[in-house]
UniProtKB/TrEMBL annotation:
Swiss-Prot/TrEMBL keywords: Glycosyltransferase, Transferase
SUPFAM superfamilies: Nucleoside phosphorylase/phosphoribosyltransferase catalytic domain, Nucleoside phosphorylase/phosphoribosyltransferase N-terminal domain, Pyrimidine nucleoside phosphorylase C-terminal domain
PANTHER family reported for this sequence: THYMIDINE PHOSPHORYLASE
This protein's record includes keyword Zinc: no
KW Protease (keyword) present: no
Catalytic reactions of this protein: thymidine + phosphate = 2-deoxy-alpha-D-ribose 1-phosphate + thymine; 2'-deoxyuridine + phosphate = 2-deoxy-alpha-D-ribose 1-phosphate + uracil; uridine + phosphate = alpha-D-ribose 1-phosphate + uracil
Top-level taxon of origin: Bacteria
EC id: 2.4.2.2
Protein name: Pyrimidine-nucleoside phosphorylase
Family from the record: Belongs to the thymidine/pyrimidine-nucleoside phosphorylase family.
Coiled-coil residue spans: none
Amino acid sequence: MRMYDIILKKRNGGSLSKEEIEYFVEGYTNNRIPDYQVSVLLMSIYFKGMNTDETVSLTDSMMKSGDVIDLSGIDGIVVDKHSTGGVGDTTTLILAPLVASCDVAVAKMSGRGLGHTGGTIDKLESIKGFNAEISMETFIDNANRIKIALAGQTGKLAPADKKLYALRDVTATVDQLSLIASSIMSKKLASGSDAILLDVKVGSGAFMKTPDEAFELARIMVDIGNGMGKDTKALITDMEQPLGRAVGNAIEVKEAIRVLQGKSKGELLEVCLALGSELLVMAGKTENIKDACRLLEKNIENGRAYEKFLEFVIAQGGDREMVLNPEKLPQGRFVTELKSGERKYVKAIDGMEVGNCALVLGAGRDTKDSQIDLGAGIYIHKKVGEKIEKGEVIASLFGNDVKKLEAAASRLENAFSYDEKPVEKRKLIYGIASRNGVERY
């Protein structure tokens, strides 16, 4: 088998066999096939596409390029959720303890963020002592004992994806749906869960900008997961504005705690209830979505969800006092407020621009070596459709660098647009993709 023939076949619009895909993935991962040949193949895939069989084979090969985690030691059906990314997307911090409080095991491998804020692990490390570098023995024990475990992804998980993504990033081939889907699913499938729920974001603060793109990506990923023997579904959710009111690291942990305590409602809670309901049904805990949602709401009301978060943090070395007293979490020394000069309604919020402002404050990473300011962040007091009176605060910015704070505040003003008349709130959940096909709401 020759790489030349594989490139030629795909360039001419042919479908690659499982063996051909395995050959190039294994060869490139182990440095036997050079960058320039794989670059040409990626560009051919970009223009000619891949069918479902090819996409499944690519995912399978990348998954098997490293460790495939065995979670058979965890009792019952193990569930996991993956978001395609957004701004103020605090769902994992809420969803994992909420589902675990219903006696369903949540075992999650998470990464660190490279972008406007840190990833789930960075956010949790706002809590002093929290440790995501736990052994597999501890990971499985925690999932059995308290029904929730979270650990950092190792470099041995789908190393082919890491290498291919780096090449895609410098050859303008990132935004091809089969390549995106196989990249995400290779890591999720290698993580070992029995049931996978995908949260595919769409809007200004997401990678997918239109509902059609988001539904197509969701369909491909669901087909991959089910094609590889894992119960897989996807919800398509809105990210035209930040999902939560908090954007940052410690500030998102604070918001998650308030939601789990039943002190905060809104879009963030609504999405978490929708995702959690699907996970409970997938785990066989309830037969229908309505019963599942009622169970989740009950566990917020009776305090079990919040107690589960506290138990989870303590089990992984975190300081319980920071959960019991969230004001002890890191917060920037300086605060700037964006205020309204007149009575009006929020018409739109550019999610990506809010994320960029958080990055300016220091809440995220420009490069993998960047240092995150855990206390930097933004709190949005007024979201789309909400009325603002003259002099009211629209958003608060927190930081430890005055110049960064000034730059971010000036930029944040442009992320908001207004109307004199009431504005209708946006649709939050667009639909679902499952083995039964796609359903638009």
